[in-house]
Design brief:
Helix content is 82%, strand content 0%. The protein is globular and about 60 Å long. The chain has helices at residues 2-15, 17-42, 47-65, 67-83, 88-126, 132-163, 167-180, 182-201, 203-236, 258-262.
Amino acid sequence: MLARAMKMAFWITYDHLGKFLVVGLLWSVALFVPGWIALVGLFSGEPGVRAIIGIPAALAAFGIILPVPSAGLAYFIKVLIDERDGSIGDFFRGIKLYAVRAVAIGLFFVFAAASLGTSTWFYAAKLRDTAPWLGYAISGLALWCLLFAALMGLLVLPALVQKKAGIYETLKLTALLVLGNPLFSLGLAFQVLTLTAVCLAIFPVFIFLYGPGFAALTGSAYEMLARKYAARAAETGARQDRPPYPSDEEDDYLNRGFRDFLFPWKG
């Protein structure tokens, strides 16, 4: 499934590169100023600056501001997958539909990351002399929970825009997807880290393509999982909550090769 998700994400990007450049720039602009303030404050080396500027700016940037355009991107990718075409207006439509829920989810993940990250360090250090094994056990559990939350974060916005559910239902669904597909989730995380490294190495690419590239990859990964469970439901005769998914043989994104890349007009 990972290979199919990556292939789908590539062809979505290839087919809609011009729109990707526009929405990617909008995503980057929305995040740039608060993100820069947060990073400067957090790594200033001054405890006062970190507490007064860095931490509040990080909370605003990653818990409030980042989820809003990211929800727009997730919806934009959903439209491109479902309809094979879309407009930049779909990006803004996604923001209008899902901004409030996306911010609530973003704040949940920021506080979860802060709590679990602090716990990973705190208990090992605090109990090092009195009960080291207990401290390491609690810190290890917190670290695993932090990893689990990070894997959930990759799929949570695609789940939100696809299922159109509330906050609790979206988080529950995402947790179940990660629990049911741990290797797939880890493979997706590796793909995202690779994309991040490549885009950071070529910084203009990061500005224009990282946001929509991330959304295309995670949205395609969610689509593969949705098709997997839809196929299982069809085998058991369970009711479907959406029209049938196309088979891989019918999906244009999954049935192109190198020839289509070189000679797109011959498709």
